[in-house]
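Figure 2 data, in text form.
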Amino acid sequence: MSTIDLTSMGLRAKQAARSLARATTEQKNLALLGIADGLSRCQDDLLKANAEDVAIAVAHNVAPYFVDRLTLTPIRLHQIAADTRDVASLPDPVGEQFDHNVLPNGLRLHKRRVPLGVLGVIYEARPNVTIDIATLAVKSGNAVILRGGSETINSNRALVGVIHEALRATGLPEPSVQLIDSPDRALINELLRLHDYVDLIIPRGGAALHKLCRENSNIPVITGGMGINHYYVDATVDQAKAVEVIYNAKVQRPTVCNALGTLLLQREVVAEFLPKVIERLTQAGVKFKCDERSYVIAQQSNIPQAKVEHIQDGEYDIEWLSLILSVKVVDSIVEAMAHIEAHGTGHSDGILSQDPVHIARFLNEVDSAAVYANASTRFTDGGQFGLGAEVAVSTQRVHARGPMGLRELTTYKWVAEGDGHVRS
């Protein structure tokens, strides 16, 4: 039984959020720069704590993609620190005024950005998320309660220690960032019902976590971070460029939510194009799950070391998170878009084509958080989109969609200014 008092934690977070909402941009930026410096200064301690988590995960024979997500390295810590400094350099959205208007009666109106309040973020396996969320929350004036996976407890304790040191040094309340450092899963359900203190729940993980939060929370939930992503390739494609885009989207980092999952090939191009894809991706160890038509072409290509097998029922609905690529032959762009609607997760989907009509139709009709024409889905990322970092990639329509950066962690209030105005 856990000894953590979430009600007290929520109260402290609510009080901290009020202080953060009043903090100056300079004060918040100094805290972020302190976090970045602390990541470098405490690198040895952070890597030691992370190594403990990795060793436990390996001993439990978890999947390779899971170990990859869990692992911190000097290079990754350096990049996390760089991302934190990038967030510090971004404009502060809090207090921004927009949609100014003067009514016929002279009443002056505008909208003003304000923090959401207290965030509850539940995530798995990726300790870098701890820093991403904390920095974005602090910069946008929000307090946050973090519940990382049990497999990251040592890493997250060390990382939150760095965060708290930076907050103290800049006069910001330490409870601005709090960690539920217990593996007790009952605390997740308790957090989901902490509606008196928490304003938004953000789960980052698989379908089971999303389902748990949607079905049990009495706090608004933004889901995302699960990607079964597609490319549709038509007969007009620039094949040389397309092969490299597919390679990047599948191979550059296969364990993340914006990696490619399924390749949809128009039937006119499959015989010429698929062998080129297989030859290029086989060099990286990719295994191909093919429907019957693409399987026949793949077998005829006779590419040494190629790993090709028939796709099984339900496998188009799997987020592979590994070097596996699903392949399907389609007769038209209409069939391709229907497949994406049936099997996609609304994350990132693209078209590889030189046909402006096909491109325009795909970009207009495919209803995903990010849609691409002739570019890698790996760009769906807060840093790549110029947001500095992200709390999550939202795949829903309410409030925020796609990478959630600083502005997506704010709401607004109406401000009305008059001169003794009364309503007649």
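Caption note: The CA atoms of residues 242 and 352 lie 6 Å apart.
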